[in-house]
Write a structure and sequence with these properties.
The complex is a heterotrimer of chains A (317), B (391) and C (100).
Chain A: H1 8-11, H2 29-41, E1 45-49, H3 53-58, E2 70-72, H4 78-94, E3 104-110, H5 111-116, H6 119-128, E4 132-138, E5 164-165, E6 168-169, H7 178-183, E7 189-193, H8 198-210, E8 215-220, H9 224-227, H10 234-243, E9 250-253, E10 256-259, H11 269-273, H12 284-308
Helix pairs in contact in A: 2-8, 4-6
Chain B: E1 3-8, H1 9-19, E2 24-26, H2 34-45, E3 52-54, H3 59-71, E4 76-81, H4 82-87, H5 89-97, E5 103-108, H6 122-126, E6 133-136, H7 140-155, E7 163-168, E8 176-181, H8 184-190, E9 207-208, H9 217-246, E10 253-256, E11 263-267, H10 271-284, E12 289-294, E13 296-298, H11 302-308, E14 314-319, H12 330-339, E15 347-352, H13 362-378, E16 385-386
Parallel strand pairs in B: 2-3, 2-4, 4-5, 5-7, 6-7, 11-12, 11-14, 14-15, 15-16
Antiparallel strand pairs in B: 1-8, 6-13, 10-12
Helix pairs in contact in B: 1-2, 1-7, 3-5, 7-9, 10-13
Chain C: E1 39-43, H1 53-57, E2 63-65, E3 71-73, H2 83-87, E4 93-97
Antiparallel strand pairs in C: 1-4, 2-3
The chains are: A alpha/beta (317), B alpha/beta (391), C alpha+beta (100).
């Protein structure tokens, strides 16, 4: 077996800065995403986290799962706290109170803490151009408090505050396009990522961390508990989200759109939806409604690539 | 050599922050604090103050950014008023429980609704329990001096708690007063550099803001309570040393003819200056009255209050905030509670006045005192009386 | 830095750091998440090509290389989610009930 010398672990650092022993649910896609992001980030970071799954499973007093400096304060102010830390470091280095070392400030928040309650602070921080990386871990609901809907919950999904019932299909609005909102702030780097494509995620986080200025990465986090799917299918479901075009992987670098993966033909959304209990109630009509919208959005994305990207650029792995 | 300048108090506050060499200012404008943050922005833009100025998008973010900066080891400062203080309410608790030494000046402003940009103490009273050290000031000099003291108190390793300096909105913020601005070298000696014991630093990773299940939360709160109680000693020590260096001494409770007087008036903030004039006038007429002005609000100065009213028969408390449906104005409630177990204590009469910027003149305070004496003799049906309201 | 020799129900307010800061990085690693599982991975290493993809996909980060270089889960932490078994290219891993 020695001829197989492709060691995945050689491609990423060994050290687990998000230490095992954390209390995430079994098969948690978000925990995996955080773990991989930490591999990209290394030691010279200060991580700011919002209240949510990641914060709760990793920081129960008197213990911590973090091996890098880490701060949690409240739910909606992650980007604001990150702004303060970034400014503080800048001032201290300039005034000679700290050695000039590259310390990246990284904000981590969930979909609720980003596109709902945290959108104001995020918008402010992006507009002010702070040098920080914002990672949104999107499990498409307020999972930590019990699967309540957020603006990132997809159309037709059943959550506890927008449940499917006789009078309702569950979520009646389309998922808020947070990466587009981030890109609208004209920041140097926006990307979407998914731990099912681990090296793409690691590369993007590393690239975002190297940006001088604000960077935003939206990370798809499969939640077996909230999405009602088997815990061993986390990676598969993440892959299907990308392959069906529901969660396309792309980057927007200085306004130029670039697809990370493209497919000659997208898989039908049904392949993705049928694996999850939160979509179990959907009728064929709703599913085809979802299919047309997904196709439409994907086409818009392709057009963005054409409109802003390099001419004659081929999408590739 | 200290400079004596005629200066708008808001501007003087900005100058004090400059003297304290703050590192980060994260502030959101709100009447009547705007001149503070505007002047700070100008100082930074002209290179007179080397700091990062973060023009945040709300007060909640202002306090959050200051928190972050302080946790990273930078000296952070901000200012707010009224609605702004309310908007950052939850963050205030976090700043004090995480024991981060921020300094904030609050231009006390009435709370909506109806909208009022004018001064009263309702914003301060709403944040009584937030765990901040809180000091009230009466004039421009006091504000400047206490802003400087605030940094020293907050960052002292025996304290490590945020400090709020209260000053009356408009009545102080927009007044041009004669102020002695200390020399930079004197301030540098008085305020040592900021060193947080466990800052966010990759060389020594710490976790801040872990959550606490019931098994450990009360212990965390006890630790915080012990710190704020011990802080009083540090406040007194700081004021002593400030007086020794700069010649102006402050104390938790200021007594004005209150040692002998049988009838005392208690005020907080700039009203104390007006009330002092009333005391002078009434004493000239032979009335046995005195004034206590409360400066240290948190931690509450129990001994000093008890000492101050030892010989009094009547204590009239003028609150500048209203606790709806509650037992008297907030300050009066606390004073009554502090005196409850005393063997000998004065009758404590509660007035609420000066809300929403309504002024109380020298004559007005005389009315308050006379009415207070009347109530002490005849009793009153009400827990407290609102003064100066048209019926 | 105070060492955590007391259990959490024994900690007094004096044992806490300022602001309840946790000074020991990664201290949660003493928590045995392996006690949660209802199934665990078993291995047929003759099929293992040492690609490490299971290591990459483990949400716990508890998969490491054993003395022969094969990738194996640390059962102290393994929660038995089965992702490794599902993703393994050569089907080295089979999940079995914990009770067996």
């Amino acid at each position: 077996m020695e001829k197989y010398a492709v060691y995945v672990p050689r491609l990423v650092p060994r050290r687990e800065n998000f230490a095992p022993g954390h209390r995430a649910c079994i098969g948690c896609g978000e925990a995996l995403a955080v773990r991989l992001a930490c591999k990209a980030l290394g030691q010279n970071v200060i991580i700011v986290t919002a209240t949510g799954c990641i914060e709760i499973i990793s920081s129960q007093l008197p213990w911590t799962s973090w091996r890098v400096p880490w701060i949690h304060t409240l739910f909606e102010n992650t980007a604001a706290v990150a702004s303060g830390i970034e400014a503080g470091l800048k001032a201290m280095i300039r005034k000679g109170r700290r050695p000039a070392k590259d310390i990246k400030v990284v904000a981590m928040a969930g979909d609720g803490g980003t596109s709902d309650i945290g959108v104001q602070a995020l918008s402010g921080a992006l507009e002010r151009g702070h040098n920080f990386l914002y990672l949104c871990f999107d499990n498409e609901a307020y999972m930590n408090t019990g699967i309540q809907r957020s603006s990132a919950t997809p159309y037709g999904a059943s959550t506890t505050t927008a449940p499917a019932g006789k009078e309702s299909i569950g979520q009646t609005t389309w998922k808020k396009n947070m990466p587009a909102i981030a890109a609208a702030h004209d920041i140097p780097y926006v990307a979407t990522a998914c731990p099912s494509y681990p090296f793409d995620l690691v590369e993007k986080v590393a690239r975002g961390a190297m940006v001088s200025g604000p960077a935003y990465i939206h990370i798809f986090s499969v939640c077996p508990t909230g999405w009602r799917c088997p815990p061993d299918l986390t990676i598969r479901i993440g892959r299907l989200a990308v392959e069906t075009g529901i969660f396309p992987l792309y980057e927007v670098e200085d306004g130029k759109y670039k697809l990370s993966f493209d497919f000659p033909q997208l898989r039908p959304v049904q392949d993705y939806l049928r694996l999850q209990g939160r979509f179990r109630h959907l009728s064929p009509d709703i599913i085809s409604e979802i299919q047309s919208r997904v196709t439409e959005e994907y086409e818009k994305l392709r057009q963005n690539v054409v409109r802003t990207g390099e001419p004659n650029e081929q999408s590739s792995f | 050599m200290a400079r004596r300048v005629g200066i708008e108090v808001s501007v003087a506050i900005a100058e004090a922050a400059k003297l304290a060499n703050v590192d980060v200012i994260a502030a959101y404008p709100i009447t009547p604090q705007t001149h503070i943050v505007e002047h700070l922005a100008r100082l930074v833009a002209d290179g007179e103050l080397d700091a990062q100025y973060i023009p945040v998008e709300s007060e909640h973010s202002a306090m959050s950014a200051c928190l972050g900066a302080s946790a990273a080891g930078a000296r952070a400062f901000t200012a707010t008023a009224g609605q702004g203080l309310e908007l950052m309410h939850e963050v205030l608790y976090v700043a004090s429980s995480m024991q981060l030494p921020l300094v904030m000046t609050v231009a006390n402003r009435a709370l909506s609704a109806p909208l009022s940009v004018w001064g009263d103490h309702s914003d301060a009273m709403a944040v009584r329990d937030t765990g901040w050290i809180q000091i009230f000031t009466e004039n421009g000099q006091e504000v400047v001096d206490n802003v400087l003291c605030a940094f020293r108190i907050a960052e002292d390793h025996r304290v490590l708690l945020p400090v709020m300096i209260h000053l009356d909105g408009f009545h102080l913020t927009h007044m041009i007063e004669p102020v002695l601005l200390p020399e930079q070298s004197e301030v540098d000696q008085f305020i040592p550099p900021y060193r947080y014991p466990l800052p966010l630093d990759p060389d020594k990773p710490v976790t801040m803001g872990a959550f606490a299940p019931p098994i450990i939360y009360p212990e965390a709160k006890k630790a915080q309570q012990v710190h704020i109680t011990r802080a009083k000693e540090v406040v007194l020590e700081c004021w002593r040393e400030f007086g020794d260096i700069f010649g102006r001494y402050y104390s938790p409770v200021e007594n004005y003819h209150s040692e002998e007087a049988k009838v005392l008036l208690l005020t907080m903030g700039s009203f104390s200056e007006t009330a002092r004039a009333t005391i002078d006038k009434m004493r000239e007429e032979g009335k046995d009255v005195g004034l206590i002005s409360l400066r240290l609000w948190r931690p509450f100065p129990f001994e000093e209050i008890r000492q101050a009213v030892k010989n009094a028969e009547v204590l009239i408390v003028l609150d500048r905030a209203l606790s709806f449906g509650g037992p008297a104005g907030p300050v009066c409630s606390e004073v009554r509670s502090a005196l409850y177990n005393e063997e000998e204590k004065p009758k404590v009469i509660s007035f609420v006045g000066g809300l929403g910027g309504r002024d109380i003149s020298v004559a007005g305070f005389e009315e308050v005192i006379n009415r207070g004496i009347e109530i002490s003799q005849t009793g009153s049906e009400q827990e407290f009386e609102m003064f100066g309201v048209r019926e | 830095m105070r060492q955590l020799v007391k259990s959490e129900s024994e900690l007094t307010w004096k044992d806490l750091e300022i602001g309840s800061i946790v000074g020991e990085p990664g201290s949660a690693s003493q928590y045995q998440t392996g006690a949660w599982r209802s199934q665990r991975p078993t291995y047929d290493f003759t099929k293992c090509i040492k690609c490490g993809i299971c290591y990459i996909f483990c949400p716990e980060g508890c998969i490491g290389q054993n003395t022969e270089g094969y990738f194996e889960a640390d059962l102290f932490y393994c929660k038995g989610c089965g992702i490794c078994a599902r993703e393994c290219w050569t089907q080295v891993i089979t999940m079995i009930e914990e009770e067996e």
